[in-house]
Amino acid sequence: MLTITNTPHHTGVKISGDYFDLDGLNQAIYHVIGDEEKYYNYAGARIRILGVSYNIRQAAQGSRNIERVFNGLHEHVKKQHTFIAPDKNIYFSVEILWPEILFAALVLRDFSRLRQAESESPEWDFHLHTIAHFQALILDCLHGQIEEENYRILLQAFSASSRMEDYAIQYIDFLNLQYIGMAVSQRKKALPSIAAKIAAQDQDYLSFRQQVIASANPSKKAIHEIPIQTDYPETILW
Questions:
Q1: pTM for the full model?
Q2: Angle at CA 42, nearest 5°, toward 40 and 46?
């Protein structure tokens, strides 16, 4: 079963599941975001989602965390059916920073809408339901970290948020690095504000985007092709 939980130091979320859970999620992501040039205005967002997808795929291949999780097989069940079997399954997991996963939840909403518009029967699209479940798990995890009133406000902001076309994806790097640099005690307090910034595309974001556009103009590069001039720490305390 796919699960999403907060990490111990409130740095991000841990996405966990068995191989089929994580592989199924990855297949759904690829299905919904389409080929590289399908949605031109979402090229940067697609790259960002592929970064999350890459980490999930690496986790499914055993390159991240491996856990043993109780599978519900009690001793009396083994005796009843007269067989020997382990009572734990192998689960894989990977951590994703909070700003990154919140951005993923919003962008996947846009990709899902685009996919639904092309489908004759979107209600029967298994991959769309997988993505919706993934988004709901992210929001449910966020719900557990913030006060109820803040969550209700954020839920409205997420529902009413603008489309993420031509998004300055460098802003997510900025938020990621800002969030990593906070003390653990600050992160939980800052999380509602960061989630709101991503959803609302506020003045801070718009000013940041204008700076990126100004950097892109001389070289005539697309907005998502301008690199951010800073590095992530080699080790993150999750």
A1: 0.91
A2: 115
